[in-house]
Amino acid sequence: MSEEKHVAIFDLGSNTARLIVMAYQPHKSYRQIDELRFGVRIAGAMGEEKIIRADAFERGLNAFLSISSYCKAAGIDRVKAVATSAIRDARNGDSFIASVKERTGIEITILSGEREAYYGSLAAINSLALENAFVFDLGGGSAQISRVKDKSYQEGFSYPIGAVRMSETFLSEQPPKKKAIRNLIGYVRELIAAQQPEGFGQAKMLVGMGGSMRNLAKIHSKRHNYPIDLRHSYRLSKEDLHNLANELLSKDIKSRELIAGLSSDRADIIAAAAVVIYEITELSGASEVVVSGQGIREGLFYEYLLEHHPTPIIEDVRSFSIANLAHHYYDYKAHNEHVRFLALKLFDALAERYGLNSWEKELLGYAALIHDIGMSVHYYDHHQHGYYLVMSSALPGFSHREQALIALLVKYHRKGNPSLGEFASFLKEDEDRLKKLAALLRLAEYLERSKAQIIYDLRCYLGEGYLHIEALAKSKARVEIQEAQNRSDLLASSYGLKVDISLMTHL
Questions:
Q1: Rounded-to-integer distance, Cα 105 and Cα 112, Å
Q2: What is the mean pLDDT of the chain?
Q3: Mode of pairing for the β-strands spanning 498-505 and 455-463
């Protein structure tokens, strides 16, 4: 990967500071290669005086000293550091920035509330394939709410209702009194009512980001034995948020620390965070929140990935996501694209009679492009390895259901009787769909057994109870025809057809 570049993005938030290190080829691919997290609580005890206290000042400075040391040792010379509401609002914020510059050489960019909203929206657009939505980002000191229209950031506003700030202002007593909770709710509603993006209140889609947002999703997913250990694209209904907020408000800090999935360093602020998130959802008019695993850091990174592009927006998030996965594991493009071509030819031959739809065709095509990524681990059981690679991290642009189905198609592209396995309850309506699509992918794979595109096209004839396939080949395709005929049993059983394959050679 001679073209690969590296950049470190450091976001100093009011509660936590996090460094992500990204390796990328501009406009082509990217991967995260490291992450460091620091509990700085810069906004802690700032009070109405808006002064960063000595202990918080020291925690923040130590975080920068650590990342400076790390980046030098790792040979990373591109470092982008930003600070948000705590430093932005602090009377001694300039002193902190000067101290960091003097001790580490790192220059900090203070993001305005509007720029925070922009970068959060940029992350959501490029990781959730948003067209039109409202996006909120809850931090320790503030929250941003922005509007996305036609895959473009339109406007955003910042509100001083961050989890740390609201906890210290209204919920200092734990568990809090009812009056304190009412005051917090009233304050949040008043601020948002005074200024909000156009159309907020009739939101069809609401995206939430930030550490507290992800933490609530983790609590909920563990409690409901959710089969996918990913927060990105997780969905929380308004009722879920209401119940979580009420539960957290009823407990003291020590009791909250016992909740499965809750980060211990958020136990004192998570109740206020839950209230703010619920109120934003209620005011938006949306019925649920879609969680984003990305945020400001990733939003900043897209300006590097898409440098020289008119706007840092990925045109087709789903296709880019699949290509990115293939690139990093097993990018035999000619073979992958030909398996896709053959699989879709088979799909088209059967679609009308069996009621197959465009969404299923899309998923089949994506699965074909990454069916062999497990080869990067080992040839033997590469179908199993591929399954785990697809499920190992968020697949931007795809729902969890879609990601699980693609992973299962990869798992069964070679052999085995397709089964939902650990996703049995989650994908209970998709068992027949999985078998039908896996059958097409498997036959396409064996028709391309030599990985040389010998069979360049198919003519399919669907009769009453049978499917006849003419394989058009550039040369004798002995292995392909034998292997495909031997592996046609899944297609036969899934569609209730007798399958026969003949070779048409054009020399």
A1: 22
A2: 95
A3: unpaired
- Torsion sign, CA atoms 429, 371, 340, 500: negative
The DSSP line for 391-429 is HSS--TT--HHHHHHHHHHHHTSSSS----GGGTTTTTT
* Three-state SS at 22: strand
Sheet of 288-291, strand order:
152-159, 143-149, 133-138, 206-209, 288-291, 235-237
E strands along 183-307, which residues? Answer: 206-209, 235-237, 288-291
Residue 290: φ, ψ to 5°: -95, 125
Phi, psi of 257 (to 5 degrees): -60, -20
Contact 213, 291 (CB under 8 A): yes
DSSP 423-454: GTTTTTT-HHHHHHHHHHHHHHHHHTTTSS--
What distance in Å separates the CA atoms of residue 294 and residue 217, rounded to the nearest whole number?
Answer: 14
CB atoms within 10 A of CB 265: 16
pLDDT digits (tens, 9 = 90+) for 66-125: 999 999 999 998 999 999 988 998 999 999 999 999 999 999 999 999 999 999 999 999
